[in-house]
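Q: What residues go here?
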């Protein structure tokens, strides 16, 4: 098995795992959405035992962090510093990855000329753009990505023009003995897998699935590869006793079953460790996706230039890929430095109309991404935001069959409810997105507690009509508790403002007391953020 080199085997397993994860992820997402809908419709019959509230995902976290109320100007300045800090570290890491690429090719193939090395660096830079853009703040991504792509393509064309005979973008179909359409099909599939790793709507499932499948495959296959030279002598006694075919089948079956169980256990343990690191703030989920993607890119490129000598293929490529990835990660950590953000910032509660409209989802996603530099985002979990908010932890709970542990079966006190939320920033300075999952019998009471314990509230009433009982109930709560001063409402042409005014009037409030806006472009989004930041300074908030 290892005749082609240990690194080649490991890298091949990792890449196949990523391919499998990209293919299976849409099915997992659909199953996850169906499971969420089913759990949200459940009614509690008997109360959970007291011990359940003290264990696992349901435990109450006693160290609640109080929010720090800054002026709007100070909050904006702090957020911009965090954005610049992360953008600077990400750009430095990407540049280090590109600059180290020529040396990787030189150490792998000393005969490669400087033109080939520059071309290799350009390809590495283009492939590393995906991981880099994932980690950049939202407002930096589009401009930075376009500029980097244009610059790299220009450099690639300039270098290629110096020595065009060295450029071999498309293999000779006859030399490879493949039809041209097969090559283009493989390239298209590889591009789709690459985009799946970094596309917002699917990466939340691709990365956890890739972890699970890669660890399982390696735990299953590596012991067999290491024991391969000795399997013949192990099978000899069994073969003499019960026949060669039966002995080999029995041994293979037992070994396969044992390694499968160990592989599954190790895979979910690794996924649990990754999810725990994200929960504790040691690494952000965005930078985790970025680093995993960068590791896959480095392994793929090194695999493509691996020498034919099996001895070199076993040692040199592995050290090259690890050194390349490690140097890039070290540059990111050094430029990131230490953050001073340790307080809870200004948490934002997002109340919304559940909708399947992708355009409405995009705005909520933009608000979430922007607000994470000001404070945490709290919201009720639901099937509408699965494309954005499903991370390694929730995906691991689902694949492990314990997603129901995240759901509150009954209404709880405000302290216990808010204790479940993490309002502290991660090491990079980004705050968390907290979701509250409820059974049908608990969501009204828990939403009320969530509203009472929130100082800044975004009320998304786009598409709200009288038939939307959930959001109408929330509007009534805001009016009944006289909390309209903490709210900014976002509407559109489909919003039934007359219905909202009627709900407010039932509790002695007027529609004019509600701060309203409509977001149609980046400028209006900036105005919305500014209005939300002004809430703490309002009278009576």
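A:
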């Amino acid at each position: 098995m290892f005749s082609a080199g240990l690194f080649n085997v490991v890298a091949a397993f990792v890449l196949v795992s990523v391919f499998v994860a990209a293919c299976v992820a849409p099915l997992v997402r659909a199953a996850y959405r169906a499971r969420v809908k089913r759990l949200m419709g459940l009614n509690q019959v008997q109360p959970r035992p007291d011990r359940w509230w003290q264990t696992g995902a349901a435990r109450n976290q006693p160290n609640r962090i109080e929010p720090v109320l800054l002026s709007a100007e100070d909050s904006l300045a702090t957020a911009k510093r965090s954005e610049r800090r992360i953008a600077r570290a990400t750009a430095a890491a990407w540049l280090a990855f590109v600059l180290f690429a020529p040396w990787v090719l030189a150490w792998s193939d000393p005969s490669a000329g400087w033109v080939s090395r520059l071309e290799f660096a350009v390809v590495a830079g283009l492939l590393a753009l995906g991981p880099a853009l994932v980690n950049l703040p939202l407002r930096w991504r589009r401009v930075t990505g376009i500029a980097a792509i244009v610059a790299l393509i220009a450099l690639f064309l300039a270098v290629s023009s110096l020595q065009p005979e060295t450029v071999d973008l498309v293999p000779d179909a006859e030399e490879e003995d493949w039809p041209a359409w097969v090559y283009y099909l493989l390239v298209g599939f590889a591009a789709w897998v690459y985009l799946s790793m970094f596309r917002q709507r699917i990466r939340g499932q691709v990365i956890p699935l890739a972890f699970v499948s890669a660890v399982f495959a390696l735990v299953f296959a590596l012991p067999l590869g290491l024991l391969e030279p000795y399997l013949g002598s192990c099978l000899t006694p069994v073969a003499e006793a019960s026949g060669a075919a039966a002995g080999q089948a029995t041994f293979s079956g037992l070994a396969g079953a044992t390694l499968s169980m160990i592989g599954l256990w190790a895979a979910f343990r690794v996924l649990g460790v990754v999810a725990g690191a994200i929960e504790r703030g040691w690494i952000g989920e965005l930078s985790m996706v970025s680093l995993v993607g960068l590791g896959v890119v480095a392994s793929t490129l090194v695999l493509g230039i691996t020498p034919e000598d099996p001895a070199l293929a076993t040692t040199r490529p592995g050290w090259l890929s690890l050194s390349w990835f490690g140097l890039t990660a070290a540059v990111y950590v050094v430029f990131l430095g230490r953050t001073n953000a340790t307080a809870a910032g200004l948490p934002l509660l997002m109340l919304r109309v559940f909708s399947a409209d992708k355009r409405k989802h995009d705005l909520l996603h933009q608000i979430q991404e922007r607000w994470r530099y000001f404070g945490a985002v709290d919201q009720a979990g639901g099937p509408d935001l699965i494309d954005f908010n499903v991370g390694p932890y929730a995906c691991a709970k689902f694949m492990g069959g314990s997603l129901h542990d995240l759901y509150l079966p009954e209404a709880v006190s405000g302290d216990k409810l808010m204790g479940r939320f993490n309002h502290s920033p991660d090491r990079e300075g980004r705050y968390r997105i907290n979701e509250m999952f409820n059974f049908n019998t608990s969501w009204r009471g828990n939403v009320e507690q969530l509203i009472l314990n929130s100082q800044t509230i975004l009320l998304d009433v786009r598409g709200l009509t009288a038939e939307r009982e959930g959001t109408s109930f929330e509007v009534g709560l805001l009016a009944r508790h006289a909390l309209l001063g903490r709210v900014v409402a976002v509407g559109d042409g489909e919003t039934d403002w007359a219905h909202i005014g009627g709900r407010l009037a039932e509790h002695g409030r007027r529609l004019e007391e509600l701060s309203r806006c409509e977001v149609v472009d980046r400028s209006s989004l900036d105005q919305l953020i500014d209005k939300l930041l002004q809430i703490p300074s309002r009278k009576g908030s």
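A: Context that may help when evaluating the design: The first strand starts at residue 348 and ends at 352. The domain at 43-77+343-537 is CATH 3.40.50.10140 (Rossmann fold).
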